[in-house]
């Protein structure tokens, strides 16, 4: 008999990998708590109408990727209805916000979720049909300040802190503004007009998008279409004064917090509900995600609550692709395991062992990876041991301990020089 396998695009998560999933979720929960977020758990399936109205009928997610079925009535009191496995969680959170009258208290609501989402996409590394998202939403009545650029900057700063805390290296924040609900249609009209004479020269996908959802053309990575896309109108030229000012405030706050960002005028994102700020955090190519280098995405959705029949409740949120986050952390850990330590401290005699440990502690606290030798070794043996495991060796004899001037040799270049103890950290980090 043939064996039964997991459905294409879905997978089992097994120990020990699940430990990493739990660690990541634990760090996320702690960070969310520090910023005042509470957990929300919404159903895995909702009415199809929620996503059609919330996410948008013409989006790829709704038009092509949803798991939708007609749910039969089981009793005369029930109606047959179209249901859908949630492809994302923002629409569900906003539905719950409206349903439970969370606006009644008048304040800002900060909600986070962790859970699976479902999209019928072409499976590949970092892209699955059941995948996990860690996300959060900040929303409330206008009087709560939910529209303020402070909220956007706070969410972005929180994400930067979360990625740093998880140890994700080399992330890059890309931001843009897609304007208000009146700016966007003006821009889409301009885009449509600009695409009209050139769309026949584009690939089939973009030809279709030019008709159905021209914003999606900007997302396209098709190499043959890049020249045309770069020449299309930019949304920044279509923003009204209020949206421009809002975006400027977000960037100013990010500058003040020291969060680095890149403005990407093509970042419009695939879902219809976005207004004003949109963003993505990416990781460098070669981080183990292949072409799926978007680690998380999000933005502001000031009209979503009204689109779902609720009160005015501007908001901003994001979703991290947890599967991708885990892949990156695994890849980076494997690279680290293969790479050499930053330094090997070689005490010249046993009398310097304690000083060597003290120096190692100092350097490790500075973020360096450090190994310590033993003063009972002959110097030659220390050098050999150091060369195997570290990029540099630091010699620690009686004179060096007394003077604070240390001899350092870099194995890659063979360069040997005296470095003062105060400058040693920077030298080993490669800053000098
Ligand atoms: P979106 O909801 O499309 O804005 O996606 C937010 C994040 O979820 C993306 O940046 C990805 O990291 C992740 N994501 C989206 N679709 C998938 C998928 N099919 N498989 C794995 N991760 C996904």
From TrEMBL:
UniProt: L-histidine binding residues: 88-90, 119, 133, 137, 269, 273-274
Keyword ATP-binding among UniProt keywords: yes
Entries under InterPro entries matching the protein: aa-tRNA-synth_II, aa-tRNA-synth_II/BPL/LPL, Anticodon-bd, Anticodon-bd_dom_sf, His-tRNA-ligase, HisRS-like_core, HisRS/HisZ
GO biological process: histidyl-tRNA aminoacylation
Domain Aminoacyl-transfer RNA synthetases class-II family profile: start-end pairs: 1-347
Main location: cytoplasm
Keywords of this entry: Aminoacyl-tRNA synthetase, ATP-binding, Cytoplasm, Ligase, Nucleotide-binding, Protein biosynthesis
Subunit structure: Homodimer.
Family according to the record: Belongs to the class-II aminoacyl-tRNA synthetase family.
The protein's name in its UniProt record: Histidine--tRNA ligase
């Amino acid at each position: 008999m043939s064996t039964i396998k997991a459905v294409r695009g879905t997978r089992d998560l097994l120990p020990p990998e699940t430990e990493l999933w739990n660690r990541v979720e634990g760090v996320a929960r702690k960070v969310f708590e520090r910023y005042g977020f509470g957990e929300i758990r919404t159903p895995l399936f909702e009415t199809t109408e929620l996503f059609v109205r919330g996410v948008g009928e013409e989006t790829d997610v709704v038009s092509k990727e949803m798991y939708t079925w007609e749910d039969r009535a089981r009793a005369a009191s029930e109606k047959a209805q179209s249901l859908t496995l949630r492809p994302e969680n923002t629409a569900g959170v906003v539905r719950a916000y409206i349903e439970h009258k969370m606006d009644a208290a008048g304040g800002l609501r900060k909600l986070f979720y962790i859970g699976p989402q479902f999209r019928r996409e072409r499976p590949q590394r970092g892209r699955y049909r059941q995948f996990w998202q860690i996300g959060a939403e900040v929303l409330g009545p206008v009087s709560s300040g939910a529209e303020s650029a402070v909220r956007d900057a706070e969410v972005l700063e929180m994400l930067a802190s979360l990625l740093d805390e998880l140890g994700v290296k080399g992330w890059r924040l890309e931001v843009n503004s897609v304007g208000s609900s009146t700016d966007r249609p003006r821009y889409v009209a301009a885009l449509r007009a600009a695409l009209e004479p050139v769309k026949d020269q584009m690939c089939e996908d973009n030809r279709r998008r030019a008709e159905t959802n021209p914003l999606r053309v900007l997302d396209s990575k098709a190499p043959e279409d890049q020249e045309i896309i770069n020449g299309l109108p930019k949304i920044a030229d279509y923003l009204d004064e209020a949206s421009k000012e809002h975006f400027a405030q977000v960037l100013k706050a990010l500058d003040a917090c020291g969060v680095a960002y890149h403005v990407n005028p093509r970042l419009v994102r695939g879902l219809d509900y976005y207004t004003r700020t949109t963003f993505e955090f990416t990781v460098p190519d070669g981080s183990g995600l292949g072409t799926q280098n978007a680690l998380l995405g999000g933005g502001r959705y000031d009209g979503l609550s009204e689109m779902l029949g609720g009160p005015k409740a501007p908001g901003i949120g994001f979703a991290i692709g947890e599967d991708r986050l885990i892949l990156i952390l695994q890849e980076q850990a494997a690279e680290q395991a293969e790479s050499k330590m930053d330094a090997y401290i070689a005490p010249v005699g046993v009398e310097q062992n304690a000083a060597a440990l003290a120096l190692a502690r100092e350097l490790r606290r500075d973020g360096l990876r450090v190994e310590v030798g033993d003063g009972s070794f002959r110097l030659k043996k220390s050098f050999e041991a150091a060369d195997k495991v570290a990029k540099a060796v630091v010699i620690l004899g009686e004179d060096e301990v007394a003077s604070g001037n240390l001899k350092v040799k870099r194995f890659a270049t063979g360069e040997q020089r005296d470095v003062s103890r105060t400058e040693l950290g920077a030298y080993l980090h490669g800053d000098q």
